[in-house]
Write a structure and sequence with these properties.
The chain has 14 helices and 21 strands. The protein is of the alpha/beta class and about 475 residues long. The chain folds into three domains: about 210 residues, FAD/NAD(P)-binding domain; about 140 residues, FAD/NAD(P)-binding domain (3-Layer(bba) Sandwich); about 90 residues, Arc Repressor Mutant, subunit A (Orthogonal Bundle), CATH 1.10.10.1100. The radius of gyration is 22 Å and the shape is globular. The two termini are about 35 Å apart. It holds the Pfam family Fer2_BFD.
């Protein structure tokens, strides 16, 4: 069946399965379902499939440097060959009472409702950034954006870059920046994951991951890039032109300053679960990130029949785990739809691999653990919500009134009510409120639309969301 990209669609489309998200997990799920005979729609907000991990080079960059991650290009080709109906430049912004998906085009406002017997949510994740004084300066970005520039776009991010935050992703980003010709001043890690410990010995059960770590550390050592553990960014300082000029870090009781023109910082990733919340699946709250996580079985099935969470939307575990999760969800849906299912041997192999990758993700979280309370001790003048220009002091003042909970603070200050709808600041707002009130860290509930849309799109589907 031909793809349906960038075309005007009817007001309602029905499928056996709808996959939301064209990253690794969504691609695998769509391919497996279509290969088994299901009529599958794959909805992707961006102009091309691949997600963040399989972003593709274009034009002159592709011609000069070649394909980046060709396994992603191959997977996308398999999806198209399988007959998946692909809808790019299409945003899923809400759900109706019958759990249909409400969508609009990102290029020309329309309103299309997708209905299916099975919904696979593969919405990915966003980088988790904790505000600090100066984080809004030009020259401050996330590691993911730095990685994209250095690899997919093949450009130098800056002359001298500092990487800071926490998580194993900082290491491959540092190596990619070095390969692009950028000097890396240091990797500043809030945790102490490289410190020998009994828990760290568990990594011996994952030799492939250890080999990757050894390769990254060898590259950094060759370029004499220091890894400073147990440290965090204290402040980003501007030059006379208003651009980033230096970064001060706190390492124990010592403050150290690096002269850099670029800072790439984040504390790992936060699962994108807004659509799952709208679909009313049962979730637990990750108190560290202030984000709900869906409760699923080993195949990604949620508490709502026919709704599956895969990839990073189910929990952060990396590309390899995402692909396995997509396969397992497709296997369960094939059985649900009465289609041919994988052999018992294939199923056992994928379940074992999924369990191993999940165990490694848990181990990584434990090894990279750090004191997040220190991150919330930012000065009152720190701009927490950049969309609405709300400071940490304003959030604390609202929380200390005594009768305000997390949502009341949001309403009083508008923190989290801007264009990004809390994707950048919601976790920090929750943490600040919790620190002031003593209440457990809450999460910002999902609201429709999950992202800004044209008013015309909402009005066209008014009856569906009433």
């Amino acid at each position: 069946m031909a793809a349906s990209e960038d075309t005007v669609a009817p007001s309602r489309l029905d499928f056996d399965a709808v996959v939301v998200g064209g990253g690794p997990s969504g691609l695998v799920a769509a391919r497996e379902l279509a290969t088994a005979g299901a009529r599958v729609a794959l909805i992707e907000e961006n102009s091309e499939l691949g997600g963040q991990y399989y972003k593709r080079r274009r034009g002159q960059v592709l011609a000069q440097y070649g394909d980046y991650r060709p396994d992603g290009t191959s997977l996308i080709a398999q999806v198209r060959h399988a007959g998946v109906e692909v809808f790019t430049n299409r945003l899923v912004w809400g759900t109706s009472t019958d759990r249909s998906l409400l969508t609009t085009s990102t290029t020309s406002p329309d309103a299309v409702r997708f209905s299916a017997r099975a919904i696979v949510v593969a919405a990915g994740a966003t980088e988790h950034v904790v505000p600090f004084p100066g984080w809004q300066l030009p020259g401050v970005m996330t590691p993911g954006h730095a990685m994209h520039l250095a690899t997919t776009d093949a450009v130098r991010v800056g002359n001298r870059v500092l990487l800071a935050g926490s998580g194993p992703f900082l290491l491959p980003v540092a190596c990619a920046l070095l390969a692009s010709g950028t000097e890396v001043a240091a990797v500043v890690e809030a945790g102490r994951p490289l410190r020998p410990s009994l828990r760290a010995a568990g990594s011996l059960r994952h030799p492939g991951m250890l080999a990757d770590l050894a390769r990254y550390l060898t590259i950094l050592a060759k370029h004499r890039v220091p890894i400073i553990q147990g440290a965090r960014v204290h402040e980003a300082l501007a030059q006379g032109n208003g651009h980033l000029g230096a970064v001060a870090i706190t390492h124990g009781q010592v403050t150290r300053t690096f002269e850099v023109d670029t800072l790439a910082t984040a504390f790992g990733f936060r699962p994108a679960t807004e659509l799952l919340q709208l679909l009313e699946v049962d979730c637990t709250v990750d108190a560290t990130l202030g984000v709900p996580l869906p409760v699923t079985d080993a195949h990604g099935a949620t508490s709502v029949p026919g709704v599956y969470a895969v990839g990073e939307s189910r929990g952060i575990a990396g590309n390899k785990a995402a692909r396995v999760r997509g396969w397992l969800a497709a296997a369960a849906i094939r059985d649900r739809l009465g289609l041919p299912t994988p052999s018992a041997q294939q199923m056992r192999a994928h379940l074992r691999r999924s369990a191993r990758l999940d165990a490694f993700a848990t181990l990584s979280s434990e090894l990279y653990a750090h004191d997040r309370r220190a991150l919330l001790q930012m000065p009152d003048h720190t701009m927490v919500c950049r969309c609405e220009s709300v400071t940490a002091g304003e959030i604390r003042a609202a929380a200390r009134l005594g009768w305000n909970d997390r949502n009341s603070v949001k309403g009083a200050t508008r923190a989290g009510m801007g264009l990004c709808q809390g994707r950048e600041c919601a976790a920090t707002v929750s943490g600040l409120v919790s620190a002031c009130t003593g209440e457990p860290v809450g999460c910002q509930p999902a609201r429709m639309p999950v992202k800004p849309i044209p008013v015309s799109a909402a009005m066209a589907l008014e009856e569906e969301i009433a």
